[in-house]
Amino acid sequence: MFKRRKPRSYSQMASDMIYPRGGWRRAGTYVLHRVRRLPDQPHRIGRGVAAGVFVSFTPLFGLHFLSAAGCAWIIGGNLLAALLATFIGNPITFPFIAVLAVSLGRKILRLDGDLGPQQIFGEFARASAEIWHNIRSIFGPEKAHWGHLAEFFTQIYWPYVVGGVIIGLVASIAAHYLTVPVIRAYHRRRTKKMAERIARVQDAAATTPRPPAPPDQPQ
Asked: What pTM, to 2 d.p., does this model score?
């Protein structure tokens, strides 16, 4: 009953991941609305949001959902809040996150040179292709190549992990302490509105005249 009349194609799903139909602003508003209305304690929702934000700064592309759920489970956070919070990592923010994380990681590891987003994601694509090539080489005559993967891990992936973990920790702590008071305020306002609604219903019932009782029937 709740299914689409015309199912979306895979190309439409991919397009919506890159740019939602209603735009990123509307998608962000929807995510905030869903997080605010989650039926859970504020501190658990805050922990879930922190887990999702933290994972978004790591180079675990394709595993952000699973990683966010795992982190939320470990720290006792809301799983759905963690999944929704991974929205912070999207095609618009990923270039900035990648440059900041890799740049910080390379400085900490004392590696020379700065890399732009095109270089970083280009190397990720090349490394993915090489991994797939090496997997196929197990079952075919092709030879595996590991030289570029070793360089990729040293120059890009490991700096991304180091810088991403540091920035992710700072961002997740900030997200937690910003989320909890907002959720608490929303819960208090919702409880107050429900109490006012119940009071209005009770007052209306008290002021409504009752119909007269029917006369007693003769024996």
From this structure: 0.72
